[in-house]
Design a protein that fits this description.
About 40% of the residues lie in helices and about 30% in strands. The chain is built from 16 helices and 18 strands. A hairpin with a 4-residue loop joins strand 1 and strand 2.
């Protein structure tokens, strides 16, 4: 390209930012289109290095010098890169840099032509961008470098970032710090195998607002190709209200399975777990299932002597003590007023069941200190192992029978059957 070619281009092309540089990369002239694109005055630009149009990170990395060196070597380079307007707004630019040579072939300068890729696409595909802008979800379009190219109005509202500040940032700026390194790998994996999919299937996903607060999100990813370049479109939905509704429903479901006084599994939940455990027993090679039927001795006397409020304290205390005596995976349930059923899956034999029962009996018998009162309570316990083909009523009846034998032989004992 010759100097006369440059003069013609500067005057003739109005819809591109065209900058003429000297051999050192300083701005000698620029077009009206370039002034419109970047927003600087002539006084601010003329004589300044072309790196003023690049991002701070690219300036630090020497990107402007590398771009000019490539043009010097091959006469012409073309690429997509980030450029920055006067107010700091980044935009994705299509860039062409050509070397200007004298008659002897020496490089005397450069011509750099830049266009706002997103702006061009908005003008040529207005319906797409109108749909994007009116979408109810936050829409974020990310380039292959992981930087944000386009966001819609809902993104501004949801995340609180000024739109101009998001463009050109790595998309991880919208994520809490603890998720960013893992997200980088997922992003690269999506670009390697792009397809429509929900992001983070089975995971809890969180967004990060401009003010530092976090909120739960659902994200759907779609691949895009724009002028041959792969992009990712992310539709982001704030699910704070939905998550709160789910948590309330989970809590209601939990409360429906829990005894409100003791916090133990209630009657229905305990029997349901026993039915499931008996089904598991039918699998060949499974371990034994033990059951303890526990009944508080002389509980009516405690209620009549100290009142029902104290009786409730006694039941809650006994329930907590029994829980502390069993293993992870065991079930302690309240199945009646002062009756509790303990399910012990994966025991080796009746001795394992008796050992746990005796531990419960000893801990239950320790005095309960309540408001200066030393209340003594004991339990009669029936212990048994599930028999092949046994039903829930059959098994609980045998355990109940063993418990009554304990009461008849003096209470505060363990009887097996």
């Amino acid at each position: 390209m010759t100097a006369s070619d440059v003069e013609v281009m500067l005057d003739a092309v109005a819809d591109r930012g065209i900058v003429k540089l000297d051999a050192a990369g300083r701005v000698e002239r620029w077009s009206a289109g370039a002034q419109n694109l970047f927003g600087y005055s002539d006084a601010e630009v003329l004589g300044a290095p072309v790196s003023m149009f690049l991002t701070e990170e690219e300036r630090a990395a020497g990107a402007a010098e590398s771009e000019l060196a490539a043009a010097r070597e091959s006469d012409r380079v073309e690429f997509e890169g980030w450029r920055v307007r006067r107010g700091g707004h980044r935009f994705k630019a299509g860039v062409v840099i050509s070397a200007i040579r004298d008659q002897g072939g020496s490089v005397t300068g450069f011509i750099e032509v830049m266009r706002d890729l997103v702006g061009d696409r908005q003008r040529t595909h207005p319906m797409f961008y109108d749909l994007l802008e009116s979408a109810p979800d936050a829409m974020v379009i990310v380039g292959p470098d992981g930087r944000i190219a386009v966001v819609n109005a809902q993104t501004d509202r949801m995340f609180g970032h000024p739109r101009d500040e998001l463009i050109g940032c790595e998309v991880e700026v919208l994520l809490p710090e603890r998720y960013r390194s893992a997200h980088l790998g997922r992003r690269q994996g999506f670009l390697a195998d792009p397809m429509l999919r929900p992001m983070g299937r089975g995971l809890e996903l969180w967004g990060l607002r401009y003010d530092g607060t976090e909120f739960p999100v659902d994200i759907s990813l779609s691949p895009l190709r724009i002028e041959g370049t792969p992009y990712v479109s992310a539709a982001i939905r704030d699910v704070t209200d939905r998550r709160a509704d789910e948590q309330r429903l989970e809590e209601l479901e939990r409360l429906a399975r829990i005894d409100s006084l003791t916090g133990l599994a209630n009657h229905a939940e305990t029997i349901s777990r026993l039915e499931a455990a008996l089904q598991d027993r039918r699998i060949p090679g499974s371990h034994h299932l033990g059951v303890l039927f526990c009944d508080t001795d002389r509980f009516k006397v405690i209620n009549d002597t100290w009142g029902h409020a104290v009786g409730d304290v006694v039941l809650s205390t006994l329930a907590a003590r029994i829980r502390n005596c069993v293993r992870d995976g065991d079930t302690v349930g309240r199945i009646g007023g002062d009756e509790m059923l303990v399910l012990l899956p994966n025991v080796r034999n009746i001795d394992d069941v008796v050992n746990i029962a005796e531990k419960i009996r000893r801990h239950v018998a320790e005095p309960i200190d309540h408001g200066g009162l030393a209340i003594h309570a004991t339990m009669s316990i029936g212990a048994t192992l599930a028999q092949p083909g046994e039903s829930v009523p059959e098994m609980t009846a045998r355990a109940d029978s063993a418990m009554y034998t304990s009461k008849q032989t003096g209470r505060n004992t363990v009887t097996t059957v």
